[in-house]
TrEMBL record:
S-adenosyl-L-methionine binds at residues 69, 74, 91-93, 119-120, 135. Belongs to the methyltransferase superfamily. NTM1 family. It is found in: Nucleus. GO terms for molecular function: N-terminal protein N-methyltransferase activity. This is protein N-terminal methyltransferase. Pfam families: Methyltransf_PK. It is an enzyme of class 2 (transferase). Its main location: nucleus. It comes from Carassius auratus.
Length: 223
């Protein structure tokens, strides 16, 4: 099913890279014209993430986080830097990472690495991260590449570390988007891919108060 929708993998990835190179490096650009939802998104993510952070048995540390598909650093600035000592960013578009250095302002000094790389090729450093945050980007990976990336992320976690996937969810099946060269998967498909990667879902929530005309957005905590 997915192979038929995506077609040639090389074209699937190169079309997405070209799309993002034409997008302005702004919050509105990162959110496809829905910059107005940024506060709601960040508030929901903060409440979700804070449930797992802290000290003590089973709690996730606050040393270092990785922002995947980071763009100009919207999530790094508003969610991760307030909660973690240091943050790394990875994105396929160099212009976005260049913009992040100024967008993050004074707090940019706590960003240790800006990796320019597609997630299908990215290798997180083993046992470096307390949290790996993956938002609005898994649709740019094929099923197999997503599974492989999640496996690599698992090896990049510190003890009690957490992978968080926050993304659009289709009502049924897999919906292709030819404009940005991505797919939107339903929850059943996403759950199967998470399982293939050897990860367990320890918490799952639907983001509330988003506009009705956009896809539902779900947040999954994995380890």
């Amino acid at each position: 099913m997915e192979d038929r929708l995506i077609g040639d993998q090389t074209t699937f990835y190169s079309k997405a890279e070209h799309y993002w190179k034409e997008v302005p490096p702004t919050v509105d650009g990162m959110l496809g014209g829905y910059g107005s939802i940024s506060n709601i998104d960040i508030n929901g993510s903060t409440k979700f993430l804070q449930k797992f952070l802290g000290e003590g048995q089973g709690k996730t540390g606050t040393g270092c986080a990785l922002d995947c598909g980071a763009g100009i650093g919207r999530i790094t600035k508003r969610l991760l830097l307030p909660l973690f000592r240091t943050v790394d960013l990875v994105d396929v578009t160099q212009e976005f990472l260049d913009k992040a250095r100024s967008y993050l302002g004074e707090e940019a000094k706590r960003v240790e690495n800006y990796f320019c790389c597609g997630l299908q090729d990215f290798q997180p450093q083993p046992e470096r991260y307390d949290v790996i945050w993956i938002q609005w980007v898994i649709g740019h990976l094929t099923d197999d590449h997503l599974v492989e990336f999640l496996r690599r992320c698992r090896s990049g976690l510190r003890p009690n570390g957490l992978i968080v996937v926050k993304d659009n969810v289709a009502f049924e099946g897999i919906i292709p988007d030819d404009v940005d060269s991505s797919v939107c998967r339903d929850l059943n498909v996403l759950h199967r891919l998470v399982s293939r990667a050897g990860l367990n879902i320890i918490c799952e929530e639907q983001q509330q108060n988003f506009p009705e005309e956009i896809y539902q957005v779900h947040t999954l905590a994995l380890r």
